[in-house]
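Table 4 source record.
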Amino acid sequence: MRSVESPFPWLRVGHTTDADARTGCTVLRFDGPVVASGEVRGSAPATREFALLDPTRSVQSVDAVVLSGGSAFGLAAGSGVADSLEVEGVGFETKFGVVPIVVGMSLFDLGVGDASVRPTPADGAAALAACAPVFDVGAVGAGAGATVGKWRGPDHIRAAGIGWATARRDDLVVGALIAVNAVGDLIADAAGAEVADAVADGSFDWPKAESPLAENTTIGVVVTNGRFTKTQCRLLAEAGHDGLARALIPAHGPADGDAIVAVAQPLTDQAGDDLATARILSAVAVEQAIASLA
């Protein structure tokens, strides 16, 4: 486990972690509504409010993103975040009060630790309260029970966690916070590199059953100080998935729920930063965030 600092003054991150049960949740809180969109490429996602990230939907901003363990049960953590933000008066304005826009993604960690313990609304509220510019990465929060290497059988499973990396060009910065709980292997790991080489030259001893275990899903958030539209954020999320595919073998499988949200700086009247560059940075940041767990 190590500590990192957000390069964005408007982003804070907090965790709750149950080290014994090996589960937890992670909240990304934004000081002001951010433009956001996202994409799911895995076939078994567990998400909250993901449909509103579609660029054709009317809501243009989100107030927080929650990553959690506990499979679909862990999505409850988002309710605790929404309730706390409502008390603060943060959310989408309606004539009957604010409605916090909280997007959630969960990974399947029920096969490690204690499957009866899942992140709750109280855990989400506690993670929100813990949000700070300096935060931990590794086996914490949503990454507390994350593992990789499951597709090759129980003997190849190893702990992973939640990783962070940034990529930049001049003043344009992209960061990625990724909870890695993949069916596949980390290519940056020696074992994963050997797998990739063996697949390439045809010598790989393929698993007898595809995705024999089900504790899967890599989820995360790409964050940038660039000024982008909701449609452009969707393209940044897609680029993040490119980085995911470069870092994991295999990726986006039938038992994965791989999902990435991309958020741009708090709403402004302008858009039009260099999207092509930002997409390259997004892919690299996600790739490096995953590789940091090798």
